[in-house]
Design goal:
Elements: E1 3-5, E2 12-14, E3 18-19, H1 33-45, E4 50-52, H2 61-70, E5 78-83, H3 90-103, E6 109-114, H4 123-135, E7 139-145, H5 149-157, E8 164-170, H6 182-189, E9 192-196, H7 227-247, H8 251-260, E10 265-267, H9 274-281, H10 290-303
Parallel strand pairs: 3-4, 4-5, 5-6, 6-7, 7-8, 8-9, 9-10
Antiparallel strand pairs: 1-2
């Protein structure tokens, strides 16, 4: 397993993390806790040490599942969780953190993130509260999620002796909106990109499209799965399949490896069972050739301006 620093912190994290939204067991079809636990254990056995969750995933269920798995190896794992955007008032934030600590079976969080900004709450009060939590030893580092560059800069301005180490945003081989401004900024400031939806919510697994989604599936609200977009993306996926055959790695592994090769990007794919975890973790330790990367870029540029992914 390859490892990298999380931002300017001293945390050495695996270049692939585990996203635990699915572990919340809501909105992702049938999820079995024992299978998810096996996925977590398999990931750890293969060298993964970075797990990302949030208090809203399954109303805390994701955190509880992770807490059960890691209780005897807590210090070997770097845990990232998130406070809901509706819990950013200081008094709410304190309760949110205490709830996460209890569910995760731990007395500290390695990376505590603001899940999304709330323009109606004082960001200064939120950041000062987070800094106090760090000074009290309850959290080690502060991260953000879904923040704009202006919001990141404002958040950083309220911190006295800490800095933001990460911003968690959507990023995958198809949905690349962050490359225009956000990615260059984060690279320049040495703030890590934690990439959620690295497999485009399963589109890159070839298991899901607009025709086979259940009404309660979270993908129903993702425009990427519209009939028009699926049709536009098909030629791009065909190129990925061809390169997959050349490399002997699956399209899933190719897409995750592509993100790893960006340099300052840590993808956090989900895994609902042992097999999915194994596939994900075989995405590091190799690289696509310049020729293969060029094929991907050329085909992406053909569809880039036609996609409606927001």
């Amino acid at each position: 397993m390859e490892y990298t620093n999380l931002g300017k912190s001293d945390l050495k994290v695996s270049v692939i993390g585990l996203g635990a939204w699915q572990a919340g067991a809501k909105g992702w079809g049938k999820i079995v806790d024992s299978d998810v636990k096996n996925a977590i254990l398999t990931s750890i056995e293969m060298g993964l040490n970075f797990i990302d969750t949030a208090e809203v995933y399954g109303d805390g269920h994701s955190e509880s599942v992770i807490g059960e798995v890691i209780k005897d190896i807590r210090d070997e794992i770097i845990i990232a969780t998130k406070a809901s955007g509706s819990h950013l008032k200081p008094e709410y934030l304190e309760r949110a953190l205490d709830g996460s600590l209890k569910r995760l079976n731990t007395n500290y969080i390695d990376l505590y993130q603001v899940h999304w900004p709330d323009i109606y709450i004082s960001l200064k009060d939120t950041m000062k509260t987070l800094e106090k939590m760090a000074n009290d030893g309850k959290i080690r580092y502060i991260g953000l999620s879904n923040f704009s560059i202006c919001q990141i800069e404002e958040a950083r301005s309220y911190l006295s002796n800490l800095d933001i180490v990460s911003n968690q945003v959507r990023y995958n081989i198809i949905q690349r909106e962050i490359e225009e401004e956000m990615l260059p900024y984060l690279n320049r400031e040495k703030i890590s990109v934690i990439a959620y939806s690295p497999l485009a919510q399963g589109l890159l697994t070839f298991k899901y499209d607009y025709s086979n989604l259940e009404p309660s599936d979270v993908r129903k609200s993702n425009k990427l799965f519209s009939e028009q977009n699926i049709r536009l993306i098909a030629p791009f996926l065909s190129v990925l399949r061809d390169i997959s055959l050349e490399t002997g790695h699956s399209v899933v592994q190719l897409a995750l490896n592509w993100l790893i090769s960006r340099g300052n990007v840590i993808p956090i794919p989900g895994a609902r069972n042992r097999d999915q975890a194994t596939i994900n973790l075989q995405s590091n330790g190799w690289r696509l050739s310049p020729e293969q990367n060029k094929k991907i870029e050329d085909k992406y540029l053909e569809i880039k301006d036609k996609l409606d992914t927001f």
